[in-house]
# Entry
Amino acid sequence: MPKVKVLIIDDEEDFCENIGSFFKTIGLEVLTAGSLTDGLRLLEEQSPEVLFMDNNLPDGEGWKQTTCLIKKYPSLNINLITAYNESSHEFKNLLNVNVWEKPLSLRKLASVFNRIGS
# Structure
């Protein structure tokens, strides 16, 4: 059975490394990108099942891509992350979209994969 693929788009290298290591320990394949441009390219090329995306990236606001990503990848589980208490009300009723505020609980992160059958 193929591993579930996770893409993390965040410019904080330590965050990507820590969360990526955790995901690997629970048997997931992890891809990381430090910019929106690189992340969207990996999304297109690698077709991950799960996306974790920061909002404030060096080359743009990740969350502004959400509507487009839902349309282009309807089965993608999208997890928006932020270190700031940003308004997330616009995403509350969207299927397959969750909003996470840093610091993240590893136990709660694992629940994402329980819901998608990993």
